[in-house]
Design brief:
11 helices; 8 strands; 8-stranded mixed beta sheet; Rossmann fold; 15% strand
């Protein structure tokens, strides 16, 4: 029974033609905001997605944004750099290996195993064989070579990484990219955890592109957009959301006292 529930949840987490209207529109709005914020003159076109903790929605956010970007005709590569607990291959229904870890660990000049998905313009490099030394692989010159080689082949490269609140992998990969996007779960993420991610990224000299707010309460979304649906799932974008969320969380803590 649990496997059936997990399969159904994973299927419903990825947007498609049957997804709820305000979910699709929220991702499209986020795509538009992100396109405006990214510098088209940058030589790098890769972005890292992370969060503070597991189950904040970073993988599905990464994939759903990749899908909306691909729908514009842009050629998109998703790299699963979560070499500890990969999930991209399950969502996209492709084989898990060979993949990133196998390429990074190779002593030969092999090409990465990039798979075409059922979605036009969307390609995936899965995590591959789970290694005993993920951090060492991600910090290797092969990772930098991979990004340099893939940059001219794709319009954007989206990289799913482990939660930055647990391990430093996202910062390691982020140093080789345009920057990091922090996925914040409004139901679970605390203001001090958002601040922790912000400080970790900035102290490492990495660009914090912004925050994406996940699992925003339905009442707030319906009121703002005049939706009558009870579907409680939406996204907001930009660092102003971070400031507003931090302020609201601080006020809630005061009220508790």
């Amino acid at each position: 029974m649990s496997n059936k529930k997990n399969t159904r949840f994973m299927r419903n987490s990825i947007i498609n033609e049957n997804s709820h209207f305000n979910v699709i529109e929220a991702f499209k709005a986020t795509r538009t905001n992100l396109m405006f914020m990214l510098d088209s003159n940058e030589k790098k076109n890769s972005i890292v997605f992370t969060s503070f903790a597991p189950r904040d929605g970073k993988t599905t956010t990464c994939l759903n944004l990749a899908i909306t970007f691909a729908q514009t005709g842009a050629k998109i590569l998703v790299i699963d750099a979560d070499l500890r607990k990969p999930a991209v291959h399950r969502y996209m229904k492709i084989q898990s290996r060979p993949g990133l870890s196998d390429y990074l660990a190779s002593i030969n000049d092999e090409t990465p195993s990039i798979y075409k998905t059922d979605i036009s313009n969307l390609y995936v490099l899965p995590a591959g064989t789970i290694p005993p030394n993920p951090t060492e692989l991600l910090i290797s010159k092969n990772m930098e070579k991979l990004l340099n080689d893939c940059t001219p082949l794709f319009d954007y490269i989206f990289i799913d990484s482990p939660p930055l609140g647990l391990v430093t992998d996202a910062a390691i990969v982020g140093s080789k990219t345009m920057g990091v996007i922090n996925v914040v779960n409004c139901e679970n993420t605390r203001s001090e955890e958002i601040e922790s991610i912000k400080q970790s990224v900035e102290q490492a000299g990495i660009n914090l592109i912004g925050c994406i707010m996940n699992a925003v309460p339905a009442a707030a979304i319906n009121k703002k957009y005049n939706f009558k649906s009870n579907y409680g799932y939406s996204y907001g974008y930009s660092e102003s959301y971070y400031d507003q969320y931090k302020q609201n969380s601080s006020e809630e803590e005061k009220n508790k006292d």
